[in-house]
């Protein structure tokens, strides 16, 4: 009875929020949890299987890719595709898509929320994408986050799907849980060394790791000369990566089969994200034919390398919130030889992380070396810090334009300007910035955000 009251209260709250013209992705769950704190227990019983996706970067992309692949079998799926990934957001997704039964529950979960979510929501699989320094004022150092996820993942003997290219996977190697590993082999975008010194020490003995190559962040082929630790053998591998039509063509292989697939998403890290989703699908009996079909018709609309054409300007929207993410965005864009302008909207609200010192750890030298940049717009509540960071990276000050935002919605003028004055533009923003920039673009297109 209490569960029904909680669901009804959440539904009413959701309706009120919608009538007010807001999305309210987590308020619905907040109301339901206030009535029945363990309501996720009840919801979990409606799912045949549950997969959780956690990590610093790539959660939302991997979640959306996995959902799209699984919908190829016409499954009833409940998920938080909008990226609301704390316990309130996970709970909201059940209420907003309320049914008596689901084939799958697939959820991205904020690393810090894993203890709360796994307490009530048992999972069959947990995908762990990566761990990087992110919102240090909230999480502290990476080891704290790893510890949270490590303890949470053991609650239900979930099968772990781990990136073998990440040294962090070694933290989980002694667990008795079933494990599946995936790996992205050396490719034309691999580097000889890391641009951001991100956890390059051995999790087993603390010695500095040696790398044969790095794909992004600290992910690559590593070994420890002191204790012998190295990459685990992968069950799923992506090889033969080439840049094609603004995305990537690659070959994915397991011990039985292989397939050539095209991914219409920029960023080599997204190739790792899609491999995590492929691993989950293959472990559950999906054919490569169906996986290929679903990936190749996948379109993304949440500001993660999203392409929007507005008034003759091709805009790419990119969420970035930590040093590795921003460095990899710059690294990806440097291959674009077209004339273009950039905008980086840096805010310091709670969802963004109030400590913005992380921009000094990002590799801005990459953007200084990128060809054919017309202007770089520094925007947001901390716009001046972006301009200063560019100056220290020897970016030409004559190309820098500063728009200080009074609040997170104060981006209309600068977004309209970058669209009006360019044929191509990249707009990079933190959590609170990206939705606001997208609203302006969609309004210019005459569409709803």
Automatic annotation (TrEMBL):
Residues at which Zn(2+) binds: 202, 205, 224, 227
Q: Name one Pfam family in it.
A: MurT_C
The UniProt record lists the Mur ligase central domain at 53-188, 222-281
Please list the residues that make up the active site: 355
Q: Does the keyword Cell wall biogenesis/degradation apply?
A: yes
User: Which InterPro entries does this UniProt record tie to the protein?
Assistant: Lipid_II_synth_MurT, Mur-like_cat_sf, Mur_ligase_cen, MurT_C
Question: What PANTHER family would the database entry show?
Answer: LIPID II ISOGLUTAMINYL SYNTHASE (GLUTAMINE-HYDROLYZING) SUBUNIT MURT, MUR LIGASE FAMILY MEMBER
**In UniProt terms, what function does this protein have?**
The lipid II isoglutaminyl synthase complex catalyzes the formation of alpha-D-isoglutamine in the cell wall lipid II stem peptide. The MurT subunit catalyzes the ATP-dependent amidation of D-glutamate residue of lipid II, converting it to an isoglutamine residue.
* Self-association and partners: Forms a heterodimer with GatD.
Name of this protein: Lipid II isoglutaminyl synthase (glutamine-hydrolyzing) subunit MurT
Origin species, per record, is: Methanobrevibacter smithii
């Amino acid at each position: 009875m209490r569960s029904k009251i909680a669901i009804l209260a959440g539904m009413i709250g959701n309706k009120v929020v919608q009538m007010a013209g807001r999305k309210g992705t987590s308020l619905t769950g907040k109301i339901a949890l206030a009535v029945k704190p363990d309501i996720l227990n009840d919801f979990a019983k409606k799912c045949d299987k549950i997969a959780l996706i956690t990590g610093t970067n790539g959660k939302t992309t991997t979640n959306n890719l996995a959902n799209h692949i699984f919908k190829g079998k016409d499954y009833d799926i409940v998920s938080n595709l909008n990226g609301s990934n704390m316990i309130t957001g996970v709970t909201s997704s059940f209420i907003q898509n309320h049914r008596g039964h689901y084939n799958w529950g697939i959820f991205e979960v904020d690393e810090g929320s894993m203890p709360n979510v796994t307490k009530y929501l048992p999972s069959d699989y947990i995908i762990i994408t990566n761990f990087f320094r992110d919102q240090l004022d909230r999480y502290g150092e990476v080891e704290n986050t790893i510890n949270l996820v490590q303890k949470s993942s053991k609650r239900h003997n979930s099968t772990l799907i781990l990136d073998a290219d990440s040294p962090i996977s070694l933290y989980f190697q002694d667990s008795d849980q079933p494990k599946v590993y995936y790996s992205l082999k050396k490719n034309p975008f691999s580097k000889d060394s890391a641009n951001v010194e991100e956890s390059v020490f051995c999790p087993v003995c603390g010695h500095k790791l040696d790398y044969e190559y790095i794909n992004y962040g600290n992910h690559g082929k590593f070994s420890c000369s002191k204790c012998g630790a190295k990459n685990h053998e992968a069950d799923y591998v992506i090889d033969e990566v080439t840049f094609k039509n603004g995305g990537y063509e690659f070959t994915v292989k397991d011990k039985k089969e292989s397939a050539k697939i095209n991914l219409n998403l920029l960023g080599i890290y997204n190739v790792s994200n899609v491999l995590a989703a492929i691993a989950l699908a293959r472990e559950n009996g999906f054919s490569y034919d169906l996986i290929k079909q679903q990936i190749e018709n996948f379109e993304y609309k949440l500001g993660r390398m999203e392409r929007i054409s507005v008034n003759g300007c091709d805009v790419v929207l990119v969420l970035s919130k930590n040093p590795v993410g921003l460095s990899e965005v710059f690294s990806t864009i440097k291959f674009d030889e077209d004339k273009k302008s950039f905008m980086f909207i840096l805010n310091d609200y709670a969802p963004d992380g109030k400590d913005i010192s992380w921009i000094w750890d990002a590799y801005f030298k990459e953007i200084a070396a990128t060809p054919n940049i017309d202007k770089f717009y520094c925007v947001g509540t901390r716009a001046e810090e972006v301009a200063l960071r560019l100056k220290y990276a020897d970016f030409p000050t004559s190309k820098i334009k500063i728009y200080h935002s009074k609040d997170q919605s104060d981006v209309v003028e600068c977004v309209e300007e970058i669209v009006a004055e360019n044929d191509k533009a990249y707009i990079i923003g933190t959590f609170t910035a990206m939705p606001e920039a997208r609203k302006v673009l969609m309004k210019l297109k005459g569409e709803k955000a």
